[in-house]
Amino acid sequence: MTTDVEAAGQESDARDPRGLSPRNYLFLIIALIAVVCLAVSLILAFASDSLSSVQSWLLILFLLLFSVVGVSFVTWLVVRHSRQLAVSADDGSINWRTTSPEKQKRRLNLEVSELGSILAVDDAQMADLRAAYIVAEDLALRRIQNEAGIPLMRKVTLGAADFDAVLLDGHLVVFISVLFLVEPKVPKKKIKRLFREATIARNAVNEIRRGSKVRLLLLLVTQLDRESEAELRSTVADHFKSTPVDVDIRWMDFQQLQKTYSDA
């Protein structure tokens, strides 16, 4: 488990700013190798009379070595690119589903109700608390997406597991859950639910996307003073010493998120 992690970077199969895909680069490299080999062969054919035996043998040796190295390099690129294409094809085989509005509403109402009980909020303030929760979740996911540079799939259901977002980066599948915390503890039932859903997701991905790495990214959005946050960090560290999947924990301050993305 890590307590602070950068989100995954650009997909390795993405196009570069000049519009060249990995397949185009592969063709360019093959063409370059062919041109160099052809040039050396022409030199040997037309200039052999003016070359010494040593020069001729050096050119022949260069041609052989360059050909072997070139073929080996191209073979490695082909295998690597084929694996990337296989991973992309597997993504389409995974039954990604958008979490239904009814389930999203139930989860939101449950989270807001728990926060309301902790903060002793009356009914008149519940609407504001619900709005704050929605904003906190959106801003946390927005920060991860900005850092990763990859669009997130939001509100995803895989089997019986629900996640706030999923990030795909080559062989890495990152399931993202957001928790908005206003007291220095995380209910054990939430931790059990997170572990259960992460295990379900890991098993589902491994059946289809063999060789992929599955990670749970936990975004903890807090609104606490320093002392309470230090206590919360200690509590979280104890809870996540042993996990069924790799877990990365990212701490985010709600007020700082608002300053970054909302305040004028």
Question: What does the secondary structure layout of this molecule look like, with pairings?
Answer:
Layout: H1 22-46, H2 53-93, E1 97-98, H3 101-119, H4 123-148, E2 153-158, E3 161-169, E4 172-181, H5 188-208, E5 213-222, H6 226-239, E6 246-253, H7 254-261
Parallel strand pairs: 4-5, 5-6
Antiparallel strand pairs: 1-2, 2-3, 3-4
Helix pairs in contact: 1-2, 3-4, 4-7
CATH hierarchy, class of the largest domain: Alpha Beta
Please state roughly what percent of the residues sit in beta strands, choosing from under 5%, 5-15%, 15-25%, 25-35%, 35-45% or over 45%. 15-25%
- Specify the helix fraction band: 55-70%
| Overall average residue pLDDT | 80
Q: In total, how many beta strands?
A: 6
SSE order in H/E notation? HHEHHEEEHEHEH
User: In terms of structural class, how would the helical and strand content be classed?
Assistant: alpha/beta
In summary, what is this structure?
The protein is an alpha/beta fold and 264 residues long. The chain is built from seven helices and six strands.
